[in-house]
Write a structure and sequence with these properties.
The protein is an alpha/beta fold. It is built from 12 helices and 13 strands. It folds into 2 domains: 132 residues, Aspartate Aminotransferase, domain 1 (Alpha-Beta Complex), CATH 3.90.1150; 264 residues, 3-Layer(aba) Sandwich (Aspartate Aminotransferase, domain 2). The longest helix is centred in the C-terminal third of the chain and has 22 residues. The structure holds pyridoxal-5'-phosphate. Pyridoxal-5'-phosphate binds next to helix 4 and helix 5.
């Protein structure tokens, strides 16, 4: 194991992103000792710049009151636009295709209201059987909202018997199988439980060939893996910003709508005043005229305090760059796998259900223990390691390239080995 320790130290030394850790607050125990935080897949850590950014807007509010809405140089009424550039970089989109607004599930409903328009012929939605509950509830309630039966309208994808992850071929085959009745394919970018990164391009292509729309939940993908939503022709996508974007608990989510819908004012949508054309929004006229691009789906004026935090957090990701983040992430997660396999080469204690192929996963590895997984999780927590437990049987471990180190991965694997023995 000493070899792995030396390797970890060498990797840390040559890590081009190593200084970024200093830009984050690392949680500590009662004695002030830093914990090992591998839970950025659930809630990213707080960048040190966030407090100042929020304080600045509190100050604006304190000193300007309502005039802050239009006060130069950074009026609140256009504040959401400050987030567009980094969000476009992270998703592989044009700036008018992305917007920060609402929360993930709200955005999912809003965009399904536009892109799920069932007809007598086309009414089915393909979704995973193991989808995150909020997505399941959203899809099911949308189907019922349209007066349809979820049993009939929802097609649930399941892994094959004795398998944990969905095969791309099986997804494509299912799309083909339902091609005549399919309205929408709605899948995650990265599956929250297994950590599987789906082939978003191939799925989008197949959905379109079948005459359906495609929408993705990028909660676990944004800031974790590079994407090209524009080029892949994705119809819509939604995300939250509190995981790999480090914006803070429950912070504002975001949405992508492809450019080809930017000027389509006939699309059915649930509208609000913030989606109305900017140039005459404040004339308060009846009759909704949407803004160009995804901004036309906004409902309400921007929530400035959370967005100030998000803006500061996005600047950190922007400085690092998605390409560099991915490069380090591949190495970091690969090293985690290597360390686990070094003490459990025959998978006697731990099964990793995340795909082995690094191209098919992000930061996260999902570990299933042959016995007493929950107790292992509790022991790790007592040892100052923050990972998470997901029912029924998984510990999710996600070293984040912005603030985690190779030495932490090594120490984690040592504590895990000791816990198991
Ligand atoms: C994959 C996935 N989808 C949806 C959600 C729900 O997000 P929100 O509560 O922001 O609507 C989460 C939250 O963790 C998630 O992980």
């Amino acid at each position: 194991m000493e070899e792995l320790h030396s390797l970890a130290k060498a990797y840390d030394q040559e890590d081009e992103l190593r200084e970024f850790r200093n830009q984050f607050h690392i949680p500590t125990d009662d004695q002030g000792k830093e914990k090992i935080y591998f839970c950025g897949n659930s809630l990213g850590l707080q960048p040190k710049s966030v407090a100042g950014a929020v304080e600045k807007e509190l100050e604006n509010w304190r000193t300007k009151g309502v005039e802050g809405h239009f006060a130069e140089p950074e009026p609140w009424w256009t504040y959401h636009k400050k987030l567009k550039k980094p969000l476009a970089h992270l998703t592989g989109a044009k700036e008018h295709e992305v917007v920060a607004m609402n929360n993930l599930t709200t955005n999912l409903h809003l965009l399904m209201a536009t892109f799920y328009q069932p007809t007598a012929e086309r009414y089915r939605i393909i979704i995973e059987a193991g989808a995150f509950p909020s997505d399941q509830y959203a899809a099911e309630s949308q189907v019922r909202w349209h007066g349809l039966d979820p049993q009939e309208a929802l097609v649930e994808l399941r892994p094959r018997l004795e398998e944990e992850i969905l095969r791309t071929d099986d997804i494509l085959r299912t799309i083909e199988q339902y091609r005549d009745t399919l309205a929408l394919v709605m899948l995650p970018g990265i599956q929250y439980y297994t950590g599987q990164f789906f082939d978003l391009q191939a799925i989008a292509q197949a959905a379109h060939q079948a005459g359906a729309k495609v929408g993705y939940d990028l909660a676990h993908a944004i800031g974790n893996v590079p994407m090209q939503l524009h080029e892949w022709n994705v119809d819509f996508a939604v995300w939250c910003s509190y995981k790999y974007l480090n914006s803070g608990p429950g912070n504002t989510g975001g949405a992508f709508v492809h450019e080809r819908y930017a000027e389509d004012t006939d699309l059915p949508r649930l509208a609000g005043w913030w989606g109305y054309r900017e140039e005459d929004r404040f004339q308060m006229k009846p009759g909704f005229k949407p803004m160009y691009g995804v901004d036309g789906w906004q409902l309400s004026n921007a929530n400035i305090l959370p967005m100030a935090a998000q803006r500061a957090a996005l600047e950190v990701s922007e400085q690092a760059g998605m390409e560099q983040l991915r490069k380090k992430s591949l190495k970091l997660t690969g090293f985690l796998e290597q360390c686990i396999r070094a003490f459990d080469p025959n998978r006697k204690y731990i099964r990793i259900i995340t795909p082995e192929n690094p191209e098919e996963r992000g930061c996260q590895l999902s570990l299933v223990f042959s016995q007493q997984g929950k107790q292992v999780f509790e022991k790790l927590t007592q040892s100052g390691i923050i990972v998470d437990w997901r029912e029924p049987s998984v510990i999710r471990v996600a070293p984040a390239p912005l603030y985690n180190t190779f030495t932490e991965v090594y120490r984690f694997s040592e504590i895990l080995r000791e816990t198991l023995s």
